[in-house]
Amino acid sequence: MGSFLVEVLVEYSVRSLDRPFTYFYRGDRPPKPHCRVLCSFGPRKRLVGFALMVREASEAKETLERELGYSLKELRDADIIDPEPLLTTELWELAQEVASYYLSPLIRVLQAMLPPSLSPRSSSLRAPKIAYDYYVKVVDRNEDGLTPKQLEMLRLAISSGPIKKKEIGSPAVLKALLDKGRLAIERRERMRHAIPEREIEKAHELTYEQRKALDAILGAKQEVVLLQGVTGSGKTEVYLSLSEEILASGKGVIMLVPEINLTPAMVDYFARRFGNKIAILHSELTNAERYDEYRRIARGEAQIVVGARSAVFAPMANVGLIVLDEEHVESYKQDNAPHYHAREVAIMRGRREKAKVVLGSATPTLGARARALKGVYGYAEMPHRVNERPLPKTHIIDLRAPGAFGKESDKISKPLIEKMREKLSKGEQCLLLINRRGYWTGINCPRCGHLFKCPECGGNLVYHREQRLLKCHHCGHVEEYPEHCPECGNPAIRRVGFGTERLEEEVQALFPEARIARLDSDVGRSSYRLEQVVKGFREREFDILIGTQMVAKGHDFPHLTLAAVLGSDVGLAIPGYRSSERVFQLIAQAVGRAGRSLLPGEALIETYNPNHYAIALGAKQDYVGFYLKEMRERKLALFPPYVYLIAVEIRAPKEERAYELALSFANELRSLELPSLRAIGPMAPYYVRRDGLYRRVVLLKFKDREAVIASLRELVRRYSLLPEVSIDVDVDPLDF
Ligand code: ADP
Ligand code: ZN
Predict the structure, then answer these.
(1) pLDDT score recorded for residue 189
(2) What is the pTM of this model?
(3) Which residues are within 8 A (CB) of 646 and not within 5 positions of it... i.e. 6 or more apart?
(4) Ligand of minimum distance to the alpha carbon of 592
(5) How confident is the model at residue 527 (pLDDT cuts 50, 70, 90)?
(6) In this structure, are residues 436 and 502 in contact, taking their beta carbons and an 8 Å threshold?
(7) Number of helical H runs and strand E runs in the chain
């Protein structure tokens, strides 16, 4: 019988515990490194930990304890959860690099990396190994005695039809409704994940541009290559041909899409070309399915993995290619810790495993384009659509012009109504994009000026008519719509700014015959309904699709000939160094949706700022013009890609404490006089509270990463030991 010392990371992802703790094992089968174990820690008896180093103990336990000055807790055979390591050496090293780059506790990265049933956290032990789907069913529609959150969920369940348990929202609210007998859970066994058999199709013969792009990517001396191809230029076909080459060389492919709802289409493409060598990894799969797929990949049974952000961590042994389609989309960045961006992780992984990394986009982020121009990334370009289909004709509608609005509507401009009428009469389809969901987006009292703000985070409350509730789109707070102003009692509350819901109603009134579908995250919470809407629109079951930017991405609708963007100015008003880039991308993507098949497309942009460069150049699809102009702006204001950004957020229960700590943090940082570093703030973020804590942010701008990171790491570590404080570090933040 041997005795061993086992280093264990515990599941708490707080910075003060971001180091291994030593446990003692006596027996013949010590845990292998990179397995989960059950361990006691402090007063807690059964935490999940992640074993790191395991070494033979050179001395008796008592001797060691005497030397250490504390008693070693023991691990027993029954505490070992996984018989085999969960990570390959490559992934383990990648995890360390990610944790180091993002200044994140290592355990947090491991938790983001591994699927729920293998993740080092207690909840993983309850994750099922058989695949069931759990649906929520309405039992009793009685609304008496419900809190606003409960009302919201009940009404959602009523309006959405069968909805999966994990899609309906807060488990606590659901539990309350189950306890009150309003909802019930129905369990249905789900077919294990299987990609339907498809006829293998022959590849399209590549166009001249596609062939040139393929050669450029394969021939590039850089590992990372930007593929900039206009919408409809046939980038997918390039990914497929590239994959063919990689598979032929005996290596695997990881194909990333920005959103879960774009996976089925991509899986289709790959399945038609490569049959069933494919695995899918994303959070919409049940835990059991993810477990299966993860294991299949780890066993080397899938040569292609298609998935969203976290698939960049797929346990594939021999990766030859990682593709990020629509590289510019923000959902590639996780918006909570460790705040990783799939692009940066893909690049780290590509470098370690000598894999090509291809970033595809019609409108690349400025950073990607700048690196390509400097030769840091390789570059391939496809400036034309397949078969020379023209890009849509685009018109900007100046809403300030007299006569912009007619008698019919004060929300949709006259030219847009006329254009819609024309398209609908020919049996063609229209897409209306607006970047706000809900019915009214601003609620205030005209008598006393009271603004309806979220008590949790300070954001604006939005009126949702379908559910008759006020919602905060930032933190999820809901409350009932009041009859009177809570400040002065005025019953005439003013509602301004319209969202998707109100627009749908307006369009239906204007075109009573038209079949209308709406797609926003209220609807899209249920993946089933989302798929139905997208599929229905493609098959012309609807004439008009109204949606938020989630419809602007990726989808291919052959009969769509008119795309319109409403309220494009709202995006410009949102503070942040990327607001112009966002608006440009929204418009360019929307314009790119129209006219993708034989019918020529048109696009209309409604705006009060027709001369703003993001709008004017977006409408012209003039990416280069936009790039040059925006790069000048970024250079003047010192924003990426000219500098790096790190946002350090300090949270505390009292606002003064958050402010004081952030101030002294910023001052300490400044006193270090690091070259090229500017510390800005403390600033109050737009949403001042989160999880009941007040937030203050110190923004770091710098050029020399090496010089800054080590000192910052030390400072963050020290501050996170202070009582009642939590620190969130966002490296390369997308806002600010
Ligand atoms: P992108 O992703 O660049 O916007 P897609 O990959 O969706 O463009 O391609 C646009 C359309 O062109 C698709 O319908 C696709 O099937 C078609 N296509 C792509 N390559 C070819 C080709 N070489 N020959 C014929 N059709 C093609
Ligand atoms: Zn809120």
Answers:
(1) 60
(2) 0.84
(3) 103, 699, 700, 702, 708, 712, 729, 730, 731, 732, 733
(4) 1
(5) low
(6) no
(7) 20, 31
Burial of 564 from C-beta contacts in 10 A (0-12 / 13-18 / 19+)? buried
Instruction: Verify whether ligand 1 is closer than 6 Å to residue 237 (CB atom).
Output: yes
C-alpha span between 289 and 129 (Å, rounded): 8
Instruction: Say yes or no to pLDDT of 645 above 90.
Output: yes
Calculate how far, in angstroms, residue 162's C-alpha sits from the geometric centre of ligand 2: 28
Strand order in the sheet with 36-41: 36-41, 44-56, 2-10, 21-27, 73-75
3-class SS of residue 264: helix
| Contact between residue 342 and residue 357 where contact means Cβ atoms under 8 Å apart | no
Q: What is the pLDDT of residue 671?
A: 93
**Ligand 2: centre distance to CA 615 (Å):** 30
pLDDT in tens, 622-639: 999 999 999 999 999 899
DSSP character at residue 341:
B
Ligand 1 atom showing the smallest separation from residue 592 Cα: 4
Query: 154-163 pLDDT, tens per residue?
Result: 888 888 777 8
Q: How far is the CA of 249 from the centre of ligand 1 (A)?
A: 25
Q: Name the β-bridge partners of 304.
A: 253, 278
CA distance 516 to 133: 30
Sheet holding 378-382, edge to edge: 278-281, 304-307, 252-256, 319-324, 356-361, 224-229, 378-382
**Distance between CA atoms of residues 693 and 292, nearest Å:** 39
Nearest ligand 1 atom to alpha carbon 231? 4
Tokens (6 digits) for 21: 């703790």
Report the separation in Å between the CA atom of 574 and the middle of ligand 2, taken as the mean of its atom positions: 16
Average pLDDT for 62-70: 81
Å from CA of 637 to ligand 1 middle: 39
pLDDT at 200: 76
Task: Indicate the top mutation candidate among 202, 204, 560, 589 to test ligand 1's pocket, ranked by most ligand atoms within 8 A of CB.
Answer: 204
Question: Which residue is it, tokens 């949403």?
Answer: 687
Give distance in angstroms: CA of 266 to centre of ligand 1.
12
Per-residue pLDDT reduced to its tens digit, 479-523: 888 888 888 888 877 776 677 888 888 899 999 999 998 887 665
Report whether residue 49 contacts ligand 1, using a CB cutoff of 6 Å. no
Which two structure tokens, joined as six digits, stand for 172?
């606590």
Bond before 338 cis per omega within 30 degrees: yes
Atom of ligand 1 minimally distant from the CA of 230: 3
Helix 655-671 vs helix 705-720: crossing angle, to nearest 10 = 140
The pairing of strands 304-307 and 252-256 is parallel
Amino acid at 544: I
Between CA 631 and CA 232, with CA 570 as vertex, the angle to 5 degrees is: 60
- Closest ligand 1 atom to residue 556 Cα is 7
Nearest CA, atom 18, ligand 1: 234
Best residue among 205, 235, 236 to mutate for probing ligand 1, ranked by most atoms within 8 Å of CB: 236
Residues in the chain: 736
d(C-alpha 194, C-alpha 127), whole Å:
20
DSSP tag of 666: H
- Nearest residue (CA) to ligand 1, atom 24: 204
Under DSSP, is residue 609 helix (H, G, I), strand (E, B) or coil?
coil
704, 675 Cβ separation under 8 angstroms: yes
